[in-house]
Specification:
Number of strands: 15
Largest sheet: 9 strands, mixed
Low-confidence stretches: 5-19
Order of helices and strands: EEHHEHHEEHHHEEEEEEHEEEEH
Strand order of the largest sheet: 1-2-3-11-8-13-6-5-4
Radius of gyration: 19 Å
Structural class: alpha+beta
Length: 330
C-alpha cells in the first residue's frame, strides 16, 4: 500500500494564524512497474488532484537505488563550478550557448545579492547522444566534463523512471495504443526534446533573507523528478490556496506534473504552483537540488488553458522567457 505524508505548517498573516494540512501520497516505483492496480489508481489520483507526490525509489531491501546514491556526487561536482569567479562562469552563460537555453549556467537575483539561486543545466540531447546535433555539440566546463559520464548515467536512469510513469498513466487512463494518442508517444527517446537536468544552489535560505529562493511558478514540461535533502519547497494547495511545505523523505524523489502533461491530458492533471522559500526557524547554507525535467518531443502538439494550439518547443520558449523576466524582478 502507498502511504501519505501529512505536513502541518503554521504561518502568520498579520494577526491571523493559518494552519493547514496537505497530504502528499508516497508511490512505489517498483509497484508501478509491476502494474499494481492500487498503486496505479493512487498515481492517477495524485496527477488529477494534487500534481505532486513522493516517488519511493527504494528496492525490496529498502535501500535507495543507484540513482538516489549518485546525486550527492553530482552536487559536489557542480559546487566546485559554482565556486569559480563570475567571469569564468559567465563563459558558460545559458543565454549565450546552445539552442533553447538548455546548456549552461544561470543565476537569478535575490535578497540584494547577485544570485539568490544559481543553476547549471545539462541538455539530454547532445549529452546523452540519443539525438545528435552536429551543429550544436554539448561542451561542458572542464570541471564538469570530468564528471560527464556520471551526468549521462544519472540522466539515463531518471529518463527510464519518467517513461515508466508515463507508460503507467497510459495504462491506467486506458488510452488506445495509437502512436498519436499515448503519452509515451509524445516522449520518444529518438526524437529531439528540451528534456534536461538542472542542479541548483541557494547560497543562503533564511527568514533574514526574504527574497532569496525561487519565485512561484509551474514547470514547463511533463514530469519533474526532484532530489533535495533540505527543506524549503512549498506547493500551493489547489483547494485551499494555501502554501504547504513538502519536506524531504528518505529514499524518495519528489515528482510533479508540469504544464505540458496537463495539456496532453486534456487538462485532467494539475500543474501545481510551487516555490522555494525559507523554513521557519532555520538557516540553510548552500541548499542544493537536482531536478530532471522530462519534456515532450519538440513537435508534440497540445492546447493550452485558452484552447490555443502549441508545439512543445514554442511553449518551452514562451515559458522560458517568462522565467527569465521573473528572475530579473526577484
Amino acid at each position: 500500500m502507498s502511504t501519505t505524508t501529512s505536513t502541518t505548517t503554521t504561518a502568520k498573516t498579520g494577526t491571523t494564524t493559518i494552519k493547514s494540512t496537505f497530504e502528499f501520497p508516497t508511490i512505489s516505483l517498483t509497484k508501478i512497474i509491476k502494474r499494481d492496480r492500487d498503486e496505479l489508481a493512487i498515481l492517477l489520483k495524485a496527477c488529477e488532484q494534487v500534481g505532486f507526490w513522493y516517488l519511493d525509489l527504494r528496492g525490496v531491501d529498502e535501500e535507495p537505488t543507484l540513482a538516489v546514491q549518485d546525486v550527492p556526487t553530482l552536487f559536489k561536482a557542480v559546487e566546485e563550478f559554482f565556486e569559480l569567479e563570475s567571469d569564468e562562469k559567465m563563459k558558460y552563460d545559458v543565454d549565450a550557448i546552445g539552442p533553447c537555453k538548455l546548456n549552461g549556467n544561470a543565476g537569478l537575483a535575490g535578497d540584494g545579492k547577485k544570485y539568490g539561486v544559481e543553476g547549471y543545466t545539462f541538455p539530454r540531447d547532445g549529452l546523452c547522444e540519443h539525438v545528435k546535433d552536429p551543429a550544436n555539440p554539448c561542451h561542458l566546463p572542464p570541471l564538469l566534463q570530468q564528471k560527464r559520464a556520471s551526468f549521462v548515467n544519472l540522466m539515463d536512469k531518471l529518463h527510464d523512471v519518467g517513461l515508466a510513469l508515463l507508460n503507467a498513466l497510459d495504462v491506467v487512463m486506458e488510452r488506445p495504443g495509437s502512436a498519436n494518442t499515448t503519452l509515451t508517444s509524445k516522449h520518444e527517446i529518438s526524437k529531439a526534446s528540451t528534456t534536461c537536468l538542472t542542479v541548483q544552489r541557494y547560497p543562503s535560505l533564511s527568514a533574514e533573507s526574504p527574497h532569496a529562493g525561487l519565485s512561484a511558478h509551474t514547470d514547463v514540461g511533463s514530469l519533474t523528478i526532484l532530489f533535495c535533502e533540505d527543506k524549503g519547497l512549498q506547493v500551493l494547495q489547489p483547494d485551499t490556496k494555501q502554501w504547504q511545505y513538502i519536506e524531504p523523505k528518505h529514499g524518495c524523489a519528489v515528482v510533479n506534473v508540469g504544464d505540458s502533461l496537463r495539456f496532453l491530458s486534456n487538462k485532467k492533471f494539475r500543474s501545481a504552483m510551487h516555490r522555494v522559500v525559507s523554513y521557519p526557524g532555520t538557516t540553510i547554507q548552500n541548499r542544493f537540488s537536482c531536478a530532471y525535467f522530462i519534456r515532450p518531443n519538440l513537435d508534440a502538439e497540445f492546447r493550452d488553458e485558452e484552447g490555443k494550439s502549441w508545439k512543445s518547443i514554442d511553449w518551452h520558449m514562451r515559458k522560458y522567457k517568462a522565467y527569465r523576466e521573473m528572475g530579473k524582478k526577484a
